[in-house]
UniProtKB/TrEMBL annotation:
Domain BTB: 122-186, 404-471
SMART domains: BTB
Lineage, uppermost ranks: Eukaryota, Metazoa, Ecdysozoa, Arthropoda, Crustacea
CDD domains, alphabetized: BTB_POZ_ZBTB_KLHL-like (cd18186)
InterPro entries: BTB/POZ_dom, SKP1/BTB/POZ_sf
Protein name as annotated: BTB domain-containing protein
Length: 588
């Protein structure tokens, strides 16, 4: 058994038979109680660079969710002695609408504190037996059409006192769980609760309703029999399986516990390449959330539209200005077998390269899928499972001016927002709006040198924790500083430390691959230098005007010792072309 988040939800075993190689078995049980399911599992044996995808077996499931998932892999050799397997487990939400999103995680606590600590214009009281909960009409109405109808006759500009709602048929602890999901888009503790499902249905929180139904799904006899049948297709009864298998005892050295590091995530993207001379140079940019990330290319000999057994290279560009660090890289040409790419890193130049040699022939239209493991370097800015509608509903209310109580003037343009959001997310705005009479809409003005589009992006970050433009924007940095928005300030400060030269060179590349909502990474190294380095490998010619520091770093990473020596010496001699040519010829 393997513990995950404190529960024994994973089980690993090996099925040994008398006439076949063994089968590796991975079983996931009751993961739906956490609002999760396994999307994919890959495994590797000690000493191998490849990671293989396990097959998910078809098991009959209930319409509301699945409580049992079975993955198997047929091993190519018999196991002898001590064996070590490494598993990579990809987790996703158990229902549609409950997905991973990259966002400022401070928003969860800030929004919940507004209710739990009775802050920022409380105007609703929910009476549940002997306990009273504080809330905000704008948030309740945005998240639930039933609450919106309840408040339809209330006037947001009038002081009518707190609107009271009585809920007597659930336990107060369940009401707190319900409000937490409503305010944060995430479950607080347990989803498998009939009373929580009752509230989700009553107030039409679709994602919470689906999560609760899935969590309440239990493993039944039919599922257990389907699982047994998948493992033993030839057996008509459990006693036959006992006769067919030889006895074997498999026991781990110690109890296995998985710690889920919230700062680490992975993303995948696909590169469909045209095999020609351009494929040997970084002419493609992989882009994520308005930031340039990677540039892939091949090295090898092109014959017509074919290149045999090429090396695959992935140059990381600008990842640090987006707050992620590249950890590991894999590539696959069939989606089943994943090859680990070697990481080469220079200490004195901000550059990462991931390289891997293939054993196959590449032709036009060949697809290479990259899988990158990344670690977030910005505190509280990472991926988490959450209700997708939570990231849009309240922001949509602001755009439609529903229950807004703050007017924001950017020159002659007026935007509207909710005090609870602005005050919860910014200590400066909390002070500014705290002293204003609330019997009408509060007003504030933004500096005239800020574009309206930037203010809108800034407001959307306050509402959703997500960034919709490049963090290198100076006006966005100015707003983050002025209003002390902690996470946004860290993102913008980091982004603006990176030289613009790299970005300008990447902008000139003709082709881009866009990848939606996946984590990111990269580096500071001129792609012009990379191109000249690859040209040297092909022709032996070296441009003396290129940055020798970067060229030396590349040479050392690729173990091109001759180029490394040349580059170090070139930086010390006269740039006179004749002398340089004589020097290189003499050296060779």
């Amino acid at each position: 058994m393997i513990l995950f988040n404190g529960d024994k939800v994973f089980r690993v075993s090996v099925k040994k038979t008398t006439d076949k190689n063994p089968t590796l078995i991975f079983l996931a049980t009751n993961l739906n109680r956490m609002g999760m399911r396994v999307k994919e599992i890959r495994y590797s044996q000690q000493g191998l660079q490849s990671h293989l995808k396990m097959k998910e077996n078809e098991i009959k499931k209930e319409k509301d969710g699945e409580s049992l998932q079975l993955f198997t892999a047929h091993l190519t050799e018999r196991l002898l002695g001590k064996c070590i397997f490494t598993f990579s487990i990809w987790i996703e939400g158990s229902v549609t609408g409950y997905c991973y999103h990259l966002s400022d995680r401070l928003i969860t606590q800030q929004f919940w504190n507004a209710s739990a600590k009775h802050e920022h214009g409380i105007d609703v009281e929910l009476m549940c037996k002997d306990k009273t909960f504080s809330a905000h009409k704008a948030i309740l109405a945005a998240r639930s059409p039933i609450f919106a109808a309840e408040f339809a006759n209330d006037h947001p500009a009038k002081d009518e006192g707190s609107h009271q709602i009585h809920v007597e048929d659930v336990d107060p602890s369940v009401m707190e769980e319900f409000l937490y999901f409503l305010y944060t888009g995430q479950p607080k503790t347990v989803l498998a609760n009939d009373e929580l499902l009752k509230l989700a249905c009553r107030y039409q929180l679709t994602t919470l309703e689906n999560l609760c139904r899935a969590a309440l799904t239990k493993i039944d006899v039919q599922q257990a029999m389907n699982c047994m049948s998948s493992l033993n297709p030839a057996a008509t009864g459990m006693h036959q399986e006992v006769k067919a298998s030889s006895s074997v005892l498999i026991r781990p050295d110690a109890e296995i516990v998985i710690d889920h590091d919230q700062s680490v995530s992975t993303f995948q993207c696909c590169w469909e390449l045209k095999v020609d001379a351009k494929a040997l140079f970084p002419n493609t940019v992989i882009e994520y959330q308005h930031e340039k990330l990677f540039s892939p290319h091949l090295t090898g000999k092109v014959h017509g539209f074919v290149v045999k057994k090429p090396w695959i290279h992935l140059v990381c560009v600008n990842h640090r200005n987006f707050g992620f660090k590249a950890m590991n890289g894999f590539y696959s040409t069939d989606g089943k077998t994943w090859i680990e790419m070697k990481k080469r890193k220079a200490e004195d130049v901000e550059l990462f390269l991931f390289v891997g040699q293939t054993s196959e022939t590449f032709r036009d239209g060949c697809r290479v899928t990259f899988c990158m493991e990344m670690a977030s370097t910005i505190e509280n800015y990472n991926y988490e499972l959450m209700d997708t509608s939570w990231t849009t509903q309240l922001w949509q209310f602001a755009l439609e001016h529903k229950w807004t109580d703050v007017e924001i003037f950017v020159g002659a343009v007026k935007l509207e927002a909710h005090r609870v959001v602005l005050s919860a997310r910014s200590p400066v705005l909390n002070v500014l709006l705290g002293d204003i009479d609330h019997l009408g809409k509060s007003s504030m003005a933004v500096e005239e040198n800020i574009d309206v589009e930037v203010v809108e992006v800034f407001l959307k970050f306050l509402y959703t924790g997500r960034l919709d433009m490049t963090a290198t924007n100076k006006q966005l940095l100015q707003l983050a500083e002025s209003y002390e928005v902690e996470t946004l300030l860290k993102i913008c400060q980091l982004a603006n430390r990176i030289s613009a030269d790299v970005t300008s060179k990447l902008d000139a590349l003709p082709c881009k691959i866009d990848i939606a909502d996946k984590p990111a990474v990269s580096f500071q190294m001129d792609l012009e230098v990379v191109n000249l380095f690859l040209k040297f490998l092909h022709t032996g010619s070296l441009d003396p005007s290129v940055s020798q520091t970067q060229m030396v770093a590349l040479a050392e990473m690729y173990e091109a010792k001759t180029l490394s020596k040349i580059s170090k010496l070139v930086s010390e001699i006269s740039p006179d072309v004749d002398k340089l040519t004589t020097f290189i010829l003499t050296f060779f």
